[in-house]
Design a protein that fits this description.
This protein is an alpha/beta fold. 49% of the residues lie in helices and 23% in strands. The protein has one domain (3-229): Vaccinia Virus protein VP39 (Rossmann fold), CATH 3.40.50. The protein starts with a helix and ends with a strand. The protein binds S-adenosylmethionine.
Length: 230
C-alpha cells in the first residue's frame, strides 16, 4: 500500500473513533492539556477577542469546552459574562475546573450537549471549537442550541477544515511560523471535515435543524466557522 493511501485510512479511522468515543478519554485529555496551549492558544485568543467584541454580559455556553482555555480567556475579557463550559469528558471537566479556580464567572459542567442542562430561551451566546466532529447526534445538539438560545442569540461553531483553499494556506503559513504550521495542519486534518464535506453534507445537515437556512459558513484561519442565528 502506498504511503498516502495508508494515511487516508488512518485519518478515516481516527475520525470514526472520535465519533465513536465522542468524549475524549482520560489519557487523551491529559495529552491534550499538555499540547493545546502551545498550538491553539493564538487562534483561541483571537476567537475570545471576537466573541467579547460581540457580547460583554449575559450567559454564554462553550460546548465541548475541553481544558477550558477558550472559556477562561472569554471570562477574563468579559467579567460580566457568566460562562458555562459543557463537556462529556469527566477528565476534561476536572482539568478545566482546576484552571478556572481564580475566575468566578467561569464554571464547567459534565453534560452531553445533546441534552443541554439549561432552560429554554435562557442563553445569550454559544461558542464551540473543535468539538463538532465528535458529535454522535449533531442535529439533536443544534436543536438543543436553538432551544436554549434567546431570540436573536447566536451560536458560533468552529471546527477544522482539512483542505483550505490556497490563499488561506498562505495566510496560515505567515501566521504560524516554525514547527507550529505543520502541527496545525495535522490537527486540522484530524479534527473536522474537508471543504467539499462542509459545502454538501454539513450544509444539508444544518438545513435539517431548527436553524434551517438561518446560518452562514465562513472559512477563517483554517477553521470553518458556522454562525447560527435564532
Ligand atoms: C478536541 S476537544 C476541543 C476542546 C476545546 N474546545 C478546544 O478548542 O481546545 C473536543 C471536546 O468536545 C467534547 N465533546 C464531544 N462530544 C460532546 C458532546 N456531545 N457534549 C459535550 N462535549 C462533547 C470532548 O469530550 C472534547 O473535550
Amino acid at each position: 500500500m502506498v504511503r498516502s493511501e495508508s494515511n487516508i485510512y488512518l485519518v478515516k479511522f481516527i475520525r470514526e473513533m472520535q465519533v465513536k468515543l465522542e468524549a475524549i478519554p482520560t489519557l487523551g485529555a491529559i495529552v491534550y492539556n499538555a499540547i493545546v496551549k502551545r498550538i491553539l492558544s493564538k487562534t483561541e485568543l483571537e476567537i475570545a477577542q471576537k466573541v467579547t467584541q460581540r457580547i460583554k454580559k449575559g450567559v454564554l455556553i462553550d460546548i465541548g469546552s475541553g481544558t477550558g482555555y477558550l472559556s477562561i480567556e472569554i471570562g477574563k475579557k468579559a467579567p460580566q459574562l457568566n460562562i458555562y463550559g459543557i463537556d462529556l469528558s469527566r477528565k476534561m471537566v476536572e482539568i478545566a475546573s482546576g484552571h478556572a479556580k481564580a475566575f468566578e464567572n467561569v464554571k464547567f459542567k459534565l453534560a452531553n450537549a445533546a441534552e443541554l442542562p439549561f432552560e429554554d430561551d435562557s442563553i445569550d451566546f454559544i461558542i464551540s471549537t473543535g468539538s463538532f466532529h465528535h458529535w454522535k447526534h449533531p442535529i439533536k445538539i443544534f436543536n438543543e442550541c436553538y432551544r436554549v438560545l434567546k431570540t436573536n442569540g447566536e451560536a458560533w461553531i468552529y471546527d477544522g477544515c482539512s483542505n483550505p483553499p490556497n490563499e488561506e494556506v498562505i495566510k496560515l503559513k505567515r501566521k504560524y511560523s516554525g514547527f507550529k504550521y505543520p502541527i496545525l495542519t495535522q490537527i486540522q486534518k484530524l479534527h473536522g471535515f474537508n471543504w467539499e464535506e462542509y459545502n454538501t453534507k454539513i450544509k444539508n445537515l444544518l438545513e435539517h435543524t431548527k436553524f434551517k437556512k438561518n446560518f452562514q459558513m465562513v472559512l477563517t484561519d483554517g477553521w470553518m466557522k458556522m454562525v447560527l442565528k435564532k
